[in-house]
Design a protein that fits this description.
The protein has 16 helices and ten strands. The protein is α/β, with parallel strands linked by helices. An eight-stranded mixed β-sheet has the order 3-4-2-1-5-6-10-9. Strands 7-8 form a two-stranded parallel ribbon. The longest helix has 19 residues.
Length: 349
């Protein structure tokens, strides 16, 4: 009998089964985003993943946007061997119904011991909490309901300013699109940084944020109340940290005098231009610290700082730790949700 080749041996390894749990009222992106990431990983590395969409009763699931997910598998019909289980989020009434009426938390609690890792997107964290999986662990969820999760489950160490949190075999992520970043982190954990970055480029992500990044970026917060021309300028600054970003230069870009520009920027964004530029550059440096093994000299140059000393001083001001310290470690009852207050059915998917 011929000895099988290495390629044959790789082909014989079964794909890791990824189960995405949905329910009526689920946020469509919470399911579609991670599913897209894992499907693209499968395209890049055939045989890596098999993605299954499941729901409490199987069949068609209606999302909160009116889109329908057809032919989902019932939870009871899933294979015994599940590698990664990801629970999506959705509107509060939908999450509450899934937990209290469809007993999704009980199913998760029973399935978890045989699953290599369990994750949630956004308010899906409440289902993990109902299963008791977050007790004694760090976790996050959508910024709007972090306090609610903490109140309902005091045993959980809720981290409000995090994109995603990994604590042992349990991963939780913040709101909606952060499910994509969570899935990319899971793929990176399995297949390496290169594959994760290739998928991020394919999805045209503006950047691949680390779990330690805040849910609301400085740019998004600055744009919230800014006029149209200043919103565009904020976006431009975020993608050009290496440019000359003095007040005079920025004012010229929007056709204003330096004095009027500085006043308008502070009034509309709640932050001076200099402070915003510093935050932008620190965020860019933090991204490079996470994604590369570059020296601080190179990172300082690529993120717009004139020297390593300037980079270090800015990092200490914003994070209370040097870039080196940040890189090394500064990143930085079961159905007990029956008292969830419903805020007019507002979405927290």
């Amino acid at each position: 009998m011929p000895t099988p080749t290495h390629k044959d041996e790789e082909a014989a390894v079964p794909a890791s089964t990824v189960v995405l749990v949905a329910f009526d009222g689920v946020e469509a992106i919470d399911v579609a985003g991670p599913a897209s990431v894992f499907s693209k990983a499968e395209q890049l590395r055939p045989g890596s993943y098999e993605v299954l969409i499941a729901s409490p009763d199987g069949g068609t699931v209606s999302t909160n946007s009116g889109l329908q997910l057809g032919d989902t598998r019932s939870l009871d019909a899933l294979p015994a061997a599940i590698d990664t289980l990801i629970v999506a989020g959705g509107d509060e009434p939908a999450v509450r119904h899934a937990i209290l009426e469809q007993r999704i938390g009980d199913w998760i609690a029973q399935a978890a011991p045989r699953v290599r890792r369990v994750a949630s997107v956004c308010s899906g964290a409440f289902a993990l909490a109902a299963a008791g999986l977050l007790d004694g662990r760090e976790a996050t969820t959508h910024w709007r309901v972090c306090e609610m999760l903490q109140e309902l489950r005091p045993q959980v160490r809720v981290r409000q300013q995090r994109i995603y949190v990994r604590d042992g075999k349990v991963w939780t992520s913040a709101g909606v699109v952060t499910g994509i970043e969570l899935a990319l982190a899971l793929v990176e954990d399995d297949l390496g940084h290169e594959v994760s970055m290739d998928i991020a480029r394919t999805l045209a992500l503006p950047m691949l944020r680390g779990g330690e990044q805040p849910q609301l970026t400085p740019a998004l917060q600055a744009q919230a109340s800014a006029s149209h021309r200043l919103r565009e300028l904020v976006a431009w600054i975020g993608t050009h940290p290496r440019e000359e970003l003095a007040v005079e230069v920025l004012a010229e870009r929007v056709g204003m005098s330096p004095r009027n520009f500085a006043r308008a920027f502070a009034a509309e964004t709640g932050c001076t231009p200099a402070r915003f530029v510093e935050r932008t550059r620190v965020a860019a440096a933090a991204q490079l610290l996470r994604q590369t093994g570059w020296t601080q000299e190179r990172i300082a140059s690529r993120s717009g700082f004139r020297s390593v000393d300037a980079l270090q001083r800015a990092f200490v001001r914003l994070h209370g730790v040097t870039p080196g310290g940040w890189r090394e470690g500064g990143r930085t009852p079961k159905d007990g949700l029956q008292d969830i207050p419903l805020k007019n059915g507002r979405h927290h998917g």
